[in-house]
Design brief:
Elements: H1 28-31, E1 36-39, H2 48-58, E2 65-68, E3 74-75, E4 78-79, E5 93-96, H3 100-113, E6 117-120, H4 130-145, E7 149-151, E8 157-160, E9 167-170, E10 178-185, H5 188-200, E11 205-210, H6 219-227, E12 234-239, H7 245-255, E13 261-265, H8 279-283, H9 286-297, E14 300-302, H10 305-317, E15 326-330, H11 333-345, H12 355-362, E16 375-376, H13 383-395, E17 401-406, H14 414-435, E18 442-446, H15 457-462, H16 470-488, H17 501-513, E19 518-519, H18 522-531, E20 540-542, H19 545-555, E21 559-564, E22 577-581, H20 584-600, E23 609-614, E24 620-629, E25 633-640, H21 645-648, E26 651-655, H22 660-668, H23 674-677, H24 687-703, E27 707-717, E28 724-726, E29 729-733
Parallel strand pairs: 1-2, 1-5, 5-6, 6-7, 10-11, 10-12, 12-13, 13-14, 15-16, 15-17, 17-18
Antiparallel strand pairs: 3-4, 8-9, 8-11, 19-29, 20-23, 21-22, 21-23, 24-25, 24-27, 25-26, 27-28, 27-29
Helix pairs in contact: 3-4, 6-7, 7-9, 10-16, 11-16, 13-14, 17-18, 19-20, 22-24
Amino acid sequence: MRSATTDPRPAEAGAPLPEVRPPIGSLEPVLRPRSIAVIGASRDLSTVGGSLFHNLLSHNFNGPVYPVNPKSPVVQSVAAYPTIADVPGDVDLAMVVVPAARVLEVVEACGKKGVKAVVVISAGFRETGERGARLEQQLVEVVRHYGMRLVGPNCLGVLNTEEGVRLDATFAPIYPPHGKVAFSSQSGALGVAILEYASQLNIGVSHFVSVGNKADVSGNDLLEFWERDPGTGIILLYLESFGNPRRFIPIARRIARHKPIVAVKSGRTRAGQRAASSHTGSIAGADAAVDALCRQSGVIRTDTIEELFDVALVLAHQPVPSGNRVGIVTNAGGPGIMASDACETHGLVVPVLSDATQEFLRSFLPPEASTRNPVDMIASATPDSFEKATAAVLDDPGVDALLALYVPPIRTGAAEVASAIVRGVEEAGRRADADGRPRKPVLSCFLGTHGVPEALAVFQAGRIPSYVFPESAAIALSRAVRYGRWRQTEPGAPVSLAVNRVRAANALSHALARGGAGWLRHDEVAEVLDAYGIRQAPVRLARDEADAVREAAAIGFPVVLKLHSDTIIHKSDVGGVALDLRNGAEVSAAWRRMCERLAALGRESEMLGGLVQPLVREGVEIILGMSRDPKFGPLIMFGLGGIHVEMLKDVSFRIAPMTDRDARELVREVRAFPLLEGYRGSAPGDLAALEETILRLAQLAEDHPDLAEMDLNPVRVLKPGRGAVALDARIRVGTPAG
């Protein structure tokens, strides 16, 4: 037994407490505590309290560790204390591992003791239902009363690998190597697998925090802590939900300028469809909002945890790519072709190498080799060939990144080739430094080897990640390239346009007064849009067939006749739109057909009249819309396709408020964007006017929380200088659908 059992002073788990760095926010006691108490520490290493206390001792936390256990005077050879009040010294951090029913009294005692932060490992709170949620709220009230910070409840714990701290306050069996990757996980169980996977890939971790239910300390808090932490260079997030997504965007956008943030968000699919009537509402959803949030903030979103780590391997060890042109060096044609296909599929370019580079490659490669790109040195390639080819391709001015592929033949070993690649990278790097050029990222694919493998020890020093297959490397590189492009682009500026908020608010209040929720009348829609400077095609209301003919003649032919109804949202579905009517007779015929179709459907009573508009032929047809998400706020949609938008789903989203950059990127993300640039000789659209219309729509949604959904469909984007005009619009007020 340790001598500490007969000494009333706490046991020292490691060296004497060193001088710590100045505090970085209120999370300092969580991640750099000077002292720790484990309430619920156990002698049984198979329990959570036992394994967590054992980890703190085993990994040499540089401070006193106080076990608290009322039933045992000694825990794992360390003198224990019956309560936190009996601990003789100050306590920065308390780890709480007791049944949920006892957590409140324990945390209350911590507050009276002067503990600065608590990590509640215990489950049995909000995740269990309404009763647990009430208990969690009480827990939050206690910690806030005493000015403590709370991680959890229902979590795995926290970890800090800094040499001056060496904090392993988790019950995970893995302690990862030290590095510059910080990780936040919302899942405790998954956190164990995450730490193990990081260790297998030899990804060095600075901090790991399992946030659990995020009752107090959130992902946003951690981002701000890691932003100022010099030991953290890249941030990884596993998310199941967003606590405050609108706060997340400006924080992440600021941090991502100098530290990459990579996130995987679970729950992409929905069990049921959103109860929304508009095109925008039926397409929008939680995952579209998450995607928009990541795009606006520069966060690299991945589909899986494996991809999360694949991207981390690049950004933790290699420079951020400055472009999307990839050079490929290989000793096998098949993998080279696979890599080329994967690169092109994911938005990368495999350019033909310069004449000078190809001439140099031919000087030492056999005649059968291919020097264009991919560089196929064939199976007889030697380590010397890999070294020279690696350096040469990295030197090529038309290449932004290198992918080195190796398939082990009988004669040459992987270690020798890895050493050669590293030497080639170092040689090219020295030349880049001498010329003032940025270094280029290098990825490898030693088929069957993943990470920065110990078997290829030389890659440890060279920090060159290796992937099992070329496709994984290409996907990881493509995400890093998109991030690099985002970081190179000037940040957007907030836009505030001249609008008439009061006029719009009055129109909305009239609609709300009729019943609290519902679709605005066509005149109210026109009033709201006009107040925000959103241009609309002129429209006249016709009460009957004769009225429609008179209004059409007054407008001037050709015209469009549309059904006017407060209940039928999608007019085309019931034959409620007639285009290109050239005279009064055609207007009369269209009116009668509309009435007959509604009668056949048993919906003739829903027709309140008709709307007559001039026919606008020119321009590119688009849709703009807004759907208010209960958590994310106004979600702005842009797409091409008019009535076919729900089928084609060629749309993109952003969360309001929007910057001018958000509007530019929103428009350019859809596949059909070339139509707005003037595809195959067609007239281009007025992009400046379109972007301004989007910003006005976003400002409208942001200014008026009662707006639930909006559709401007279709909108015609006219020739440059002629603007954009909405031909039809729907606005709904009330509670957001969700």
